Amino acid sequence: MSTRAIDKLYKSRPTIEGAGVHLKRAFGNSQVPLFDPFLMLDDFHTANPAEYLPGFPWHPHRGIETITYVLEGLVEHGDSMGNKGVIGPGDVQWMTAGSGIIHQEMPQKSPTGMMWGFQFWANLPAGQKMMAPRYRDVKAADIPEVTLDTGVRIKIVSGLVNGVQGPVRDIVIDPEMLDVSIPAGATFRHPVTAGHTAIAYVLDGEGYFDEQRDAFAYEMAGAGWMDVDRRCICGPETVVLYKREGSEVQVVAGERPVRFLFIAGKPLHEPVAWYGPIVMNTQEELRVAFEEFQNGTFIKSR
Fold first, then answer.
1. Residue 61 φ/ψ, nearest 5 degrees
2. What DSSP string describes the chain?
3. Which residues are annotated binding-site positions?
4. Binding-site sequence positions for Fe cation
5. Average of pLDDT values for 278-298?
6. Distance from CA of residue 259 to its chain's centroid?
7. In what residue span(s) does the Pirin N-terminal domain sit (predicted)?
8. Residue 2 has pLDDT above 80, yes or no
9. Architecture of domain 6-295
10. Is the peptide bond before 37 cis (omega within 30 degrees of 0)?
11. Residue 226: pLDDT over 80
12. In angstroms, what CA-CA distances link 269 with 120, 166, 196, 243?
């Protein structure tokens, strides 16, 4: 197998979304289409309830899928299809907005005060943007975990590892979503479909995310004009975007364990027209979506 090299590194940046939620944006609108078919990754991680309790009150989505993964804390949700519930530590909410959905996500104060979770946005191809919405609430107990001979532990939300299949299947972009923990000094290797986009987001610890270990072999986005002290080891809140050439990724933990999210998916190679919570292919489709939201005809399926 040929090992993929790093294309670019990004550091997540502070921003405020929803009704006042403080979070770190790993990538988003300004990086389109580099992460195709993925549009955005937000990391909300704070022990200050004032920074997460405002939440994300009722708002629309069309043309995308939103994937929420909670590590600590509780998030209450509801939507226009009548789904209601709370997702907690280890739970995943995979929502296909399709033709249109209105929902809210409201973090609740946890016993420890800590809230830590992630939300990905994945694009839908033109032929499925107006598909019927669907909702999947995946509990932590239903997400399999495998331990390799090297001691590497992998929670499989979607995708296949050592013959074990994650619970989220039949998704248009054929995604993988793994939560990977590598012991100090150990190595993780994982096959990746040719041409698919592959991304790692570091949660804790440090690791080497390709074989070269050369910090000047790739672009480090957002680096300052005097950033001469570049390191090839990647730490927390780092986004690793891999090149599309190569059949596997390789990660080696540093002197302490490293934990990261790994996502991969089939690029759509389609135009993106994006405004707020709606992502379509053309500006005209955006105009129609917002007109329908204003006149009450946005929801096509309940």
1. -140, 150
2. -PBPPEEEEEE-EEEEETTTEEEEEEE-GGGTTTTTTEEEEEEEEES-GGGTTT-EEEEEEBSEEEEEEEEESEEEEEETTS-EEEE-TT-EEEEE-TT-EEEEEEEE--TTS-EEEEEEEEE--GGGTTSPPEEEEE-GGGS-EEE-TTS-EEEEEESEETTEEPS----TT--EEEEEEE-TT-EEEEE--TT-EEEEEEEES-EE-SSS--TTSSEETT--TT-----SSB-TTEEEEEPS-SSEEEEEE-SS-EEEEEEEE-------EEETTEEESSHHHHHHHHHHHHHT------
3. 59, 61, 103, 105
4. 59, 61, 103, 105
5. 97
6. 15
7. 21-121
8. yes
9. Sandwich (2.60)
10. yes
11. no
12. 19, 26, 11, 16
The length of the chain in residues reads: 302
Residue 58 pLDDT more than 50?
yes
Give the chain's mean pLDDT.
94
β-strands 21-27, 248-253: how paired?
unpaired
In angstroms, the CA 241 to CA 238 distance is: 10
Q: What is the pTM of this model?
A: 0.94
- φ, ψ of residue 219 in degrees (nearest 5): -80, 135
- Give the pairing type, strands 145-147 and 153-158: antiparallel
Token pair, residue 90, equals 């280890």
Query: Which positions ≥6 away from 233 have C-beta within 8 Å?
Result: 206, 207, 208, 213, 254
